[in-house]
Amino acid sequence: MYKRILLKLSGEALKANSSAIIDPETVKGIAAQIKQIYDLGTEIGIVVGGGNIWRGKIGEELGMERAQADYMGMLATIMNGLSIQDALEGMGVPTRCMTALPIDTVAEPYIRRKAIRHLEKKRVCIFAGGLGSPYFSTDTACVLRATEIGAEIVLMAKNGTEGIYDSDPRKNPNARMYQELTFNEILEKGLAVMDSTAASLCRDNKLPLIVFNMNKDGNILRAVKGENIGTKVKF
User: Fold this and answer.
1) pLDDT at 167
2) Reading across the β-sheet that carries 231-234, which strands appear in turn?
3) Would strands 231-234 and 209-213 be described as parallel, antiparallel, or unpaired?
4) CATH homologous superfamily for 4-234?
C-alpha cells in the first residue's frame, strides 16, 4: 500500500507493564512487527517518544527550566532509539540511528540526504533526539522528518489506544472513536492526539495520518496494507 512510511512509536509502549523503563521482550515484540513491514519492501523511518524515561511535566514539577527539561527528553528518545536499533539488528534488519543532537559516539548525525540514501538502500532509519531544539515535541519532529524524507503517510502507533476519541476513553467509558477526521477538525475540536504545530504541519504539507493501537500484534502490518484500523486523518 505504501512504499515509504514514518512510524511514530510511543516511548511508554517500550516498557509495557514492566517496572523497568525499557522491557527487552516488549522491544523485541515491537521490532518483530517492524520486521514484518520491512519484509514487504516498505522503506521505514521511525520516531520514538521518551515518555517511559522522562517527561517535560516532571521537569516543570521540579521547577526546572523548560529548555533544560526538553534536552533531557531528547536524550531519552536517543536511549529508546538505540534499544529499537539493537532489537532490529538482532533480527537481521539493517538499521541506522540518526540524531538531531550531536552524539557521534553512538549514532550518526541527522543529515536529510544521507537519511534518504539509507532508506533507498533498504535500511531502517530511526530519527532520535527530537529536532535538537527545545519547545518542540516528538510529534512535531515526526511530521517534519516525514516531510523531509518524502514519506507517504505517518503511522502513529499508540500505547493501548485504538484511535482518536472525542474524549479520553480511559476516563470516559462513553467516549466515541472517530473513523475519519481532517486536521482542521483536530485543531478546531482541540483533540489531544498531537500538538497543534504537528497537526498544522501535516495539513499544510498534505501528509495523511493513521492513529492505531500498537499493542495488538500485526496492527503495524495492517496499517501499512491499508486495512481499516484506527482513525484516519486526511488533509
Assistant:
1) 86
2) 108-109, 95-99, 124-128, 43-48, 4-9, 153-158, 209-213, 231-234, 180-182
3) antiparallel
4) Acetylglutamate kinase-like (3.40.1160.10)
What pLDDT, on the 0 to 100 scale, is given for residue 160? 82
CA atoms within 13 A on the CB side of 20: 8
Helix and strand numbers (H, E) in the chain are 8, 9
How far is CA 57 from its chain centroid? 19
Distance, CA of 22 to CA of 26 (rounded, Å):
8
How many residues make up the chain in this entry? 235
pLDDT reported for residue 91: 97
Q: Which residues of 49-66 are buried (b: 16+ CB within 10 A; e: fewer)?
A: bbbbbbbbeebeeeeeee
DSSP code per residue over 171-211: T-TTPPBPSEEEHHHHHHHT-TTS-HHHHHHHHHTT--EEE
Q: What secondary structure letter does DSSP report for 11? A: G
Can you give the residue ranges of every domain in the chain? 4-234
Listing DSSP states for 19-79 in one string gives: SSSS-HHHHHHHHHHHHHHHTTT-EEEEEE--TTT--HHHHHHTT--HHHHHHHHHHHHHH
- Average confidence score pLDDT of the chain: 93
What DSSP state is assigned to residue 128?
Answer: E
pLDDT in tens, 123-162: 999 999 999 999 999 999 999 999 999 999 999 998 888 9
